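User: Please run a holo structure prediction.
Assistant: Happy to. Please share the sequence and the ligand.
User: Here you go; the ligand is arginine.
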Amino acid sequence: VGALFSATGYAAEPAIDSILSSGELKVCFEAGYIPFEMKTKDGRFIGFDIDIAKHMARSIDVKFVPVNTAWDGIIPALQTGKCDIIIGGMAITPQRNLKVMFADTYIEIGQTVLIKSELEDKVTSFRDLNDPKYRLASQIGTTGAQAAKKYFPKATLDLFETSADAVLQVANGKADAFVYDLPYNALYASQHKDTVVHLDQSFTYEPLGWAIRQNDPNFLNFLNNYLVQIKKDGSYDRIYDKWFKS
Ligand code: ARG
């Protein structure tokens, strides 16, 4: 009996059983992470992860059910059964991997910085930011926050609940730089050319993976084989190109 219950008390039924009996694939993500998951003005969810999740649900004839969750609480949401899987641009880190299982890497990224445009001549490398005169911003609980502490220990770091709030500090000139994932920064910079400059040399290596509850080898096997299939049959590339090549 012990193995059937997680530390949170949630009866951890194999995800495939509940997905098939409910006819729903419940997917946790935090909307606002461009271009992986965004909420449109009329309340729909779109993005690279969303298209993959929809394709995944379709491949087993179940309904895709979005579960938009604060980033801070996204692993607890998975652990307590609010969703079956996190498809949310989550980096596979040793600390997270102690709590959840990850399917194989579906995309590799790294950390970069967005600097306020007035600093363009003074800050030419991410290394220049490790200086007490700089104020940095990132999102709570992310690898960006972790990287900021590790690479820029001399600077001041302000952490925000959402990436939107954090990056706004730089756009408003209240912070000097925003530390975050490269795809997000590249897209944000292309949309805010007047206020920020992207230093696009990434200084970390981060594999992103889909997270599931522990002790569920059937679901893990399903996901890894599904990933190989979409990578080889062109579906992955089609979805990738739609969101990353425009
Ligand atoms: N890749 C980073 C991490 O794993 C940030 C992900 C943030 N994702 C989001 N949906 N807000 O910490």
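The radius of gyration is 19 Å.
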